[in-house]
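=== RUN LOG ===
request id: a7f3
mode: sequence -> structure
chains: 1
length: 325
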Amino acid sequence: MNIDFSKMLMEHYDLSLRSYEIIRNTKRSLVIKCTTNQGLFLLKQVFISFERLQFLLQATEYLRGAGVLIPKTIKTIQQNDYVTWEGNIYYLQEWIPSISTPVVSVEDLVGLTKQIGRVHKLTLNYRSPNAHLFFKEINWEHNMKRALLLLEGLRLVKPNREEIDFFLDAGNWVVSQLDKSAFFPFLKNIPLGEQFLCHNDLHMGNLLKSESGLFIIDWDLAKYDIPAKDLNGLIKIMGKATGKWDNAVFESILEAYTQENPISDQLVSLIILYLTFPHNALTLLLKDVTQTESPQQIKSLLQFEKEKTEYLLKGHGDRYRVPPM
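=== RESULT ===
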């Protein structure tokens, strides 16, 4: 890597770089831990448009100002939020020291859920410049039908056909319920003013527990959307944190979320349909094929997904009940 980070930090931030460590290097971003004469900072190179960068920085600054724990963006000497250097875009953030695994208990999970619900509620009426460029089209049927085709393909090559058949049946049932729903066509055309700013990439790696509390980081995929994907992220974190499905914990998550962000029963019911679809199971089965996760962990998480799906298919609670499969 031939980029002179030392010169860039001195010219734009008046910081003397002593050492640096590349934490992550992906097609979306390059993340660097910088040790300077004024302490630790996080330098991030992002491969996105200026419009998207401005949208993300303004939105996260708004949330941070409202009390949501998000790392602070450091201004340049010229009071800018980012730097262009050798044709690339960079911004600098405060370094948040992590003191432990971010979510290890039901209490942690409920606290995170409340924080996400608060984020969604805070952003319902917030509009930054360029917001109209970054809202997500509700296109569940297309994505679900494509996922079902992938599951059909996996069924031909995987030995555990009964397990895949279970998820296929669940997925086909969800698609049939969306076809029958009177509310879903309305949801597909929901205006930007009624969508929430969603993180869209919630997982353990994007959470940092510090002495100040739980920080939510890496908002690169944030868009205006409905909360289904963020709630799905919370369910996946539940699986990683607890290791097993628990009906009561799920109900606690849903209750905590709706207390912070009181969305309509109709929207909750459709989100439950989204959670019933085997998005996560498909991801796990693909990881099993590519061997990108240990077989034992995949087996455990697939069992979690199966028990979750069985519970949701039966309908949970009279308030949000969907027709049983």
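=== NOTES ===
Strands lie at 17-25, 29-36, 39-46, 73-74, 83-85, 88-94, 196-198, 207-210, 213-216, 223-225.
Residues 124 and 196 are 5 Å apart (CA to CA).
=== END ===
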